[in-house]
Input
Amino acid sequence: MEIIITPDYESMSKTSAEIIAKEIRRKHDLVLGLATGDTPIGTYRELANLHKAEGLDFSKITTFNLDEYLDLAPLHKNSYNYFMWENLFKHVNISPHKVFVPQGNTDDPEVFSDWYERQIRDAGGIDLQVLGIGRDGHIGFNEPGSSFASRTRVKGLYEQTIKDNARFFDKEEDVPRFAITMGIGTIMEAKKILLIANGEAKAEVCREFIEGPVTSQITASALQLHSYAIVILDAEAASKLKRKEYYNWIRDNKHIVRKQIGR
Ligand code: F6R
Output
């Protein structure tokens, strides 16, 4: 994993948006995996700015969102589908028929999940998957104990996740207890992965998934096994890392490697 530590939320968001924009410019029909939550809001704002200011073109890309609450209709104001349209899609020139978000109110979540996996495969697989991380180490809604081989399916949410996400709802009782989520196996098949995290509340779990052992109890630790994973943290989320100086040194000395390989 490449660890990039940025001073604050703004620079974390700018850095991650630049990485995503670079991939879109490199491959116009990029298949992009997306996350919701507080963390990526700044990144999506930056991408919308790049679209407006520099004409960053979303018209040929396909997107797949990680997850959706079970039983919420796509237009429900707490649904992740609604979140994505409010925070990114309506601000850029994306083609609505190339946008995929799991359908929370599907009649048959199992059939739907298989269909979702097929859509990802038929699109050629995910080129770049954007992730946030929960305080219990989840990516997508793969709560502690999720199999590293898991595919898109229904998962029950942990008490901690329900409490953390209650801020988006009128009251905690309204938070759905289940969600449809891509599995760890699905996420790990993405060619590149970009995880972003900010704030002191994420500091402990960031230390665990980056510097601790690979364990299904912290599902983000599976990224240690990925061949191309970038993690961008703000200073608060990075505050408990033991090897901070080393990551900064690598970042500041990358030119040495480039020189050695003649670039
Ligand atoms: C959301 C998702 C979750 C969030 C995580 C962090 O689509 O997959 O794993 O990324 O719960 O949420 P925030 O960013 O609100 O702290």
